[in-house]
Amino acid sequence: MGLVPDGLGPVVVQLILAVGFAALILTLALLISPRKRSKPHDTFECGVPYFGDARGIFNIKFYLVAVLFILFDIEAVFLYPWAVSLGKFNEVGLGTFLMIEMFVFIFILVVGLYYVWKKGALEWD
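^ that's the sequence the OP posted. Answer follows.
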């Protein structure tokens, strides 16, 4: 009753399914997409006419919020598999170690959130 699968069968099946699904989606996109060629218009795809230079200056807060969102989104992605596999690691005797590691991970993220909050990166003034 180990943590590693007995063979590579499930990995190969998932790889074949992933590549097959990607090929299917790309093929359907080529078959279904419109073939109409037209000259470019002076508007974006949403129909709103643009103005000014495309290399305009954006506020850095947009980028900071995007990076913070990605950071905490990745944290949530890592928490779910950790919680699912904690029981299996607990049977082997590594449950306490993994719990401490996760507390350290969450502590580092909380300290980072506190730092960003105090710096004012989340303010939209």
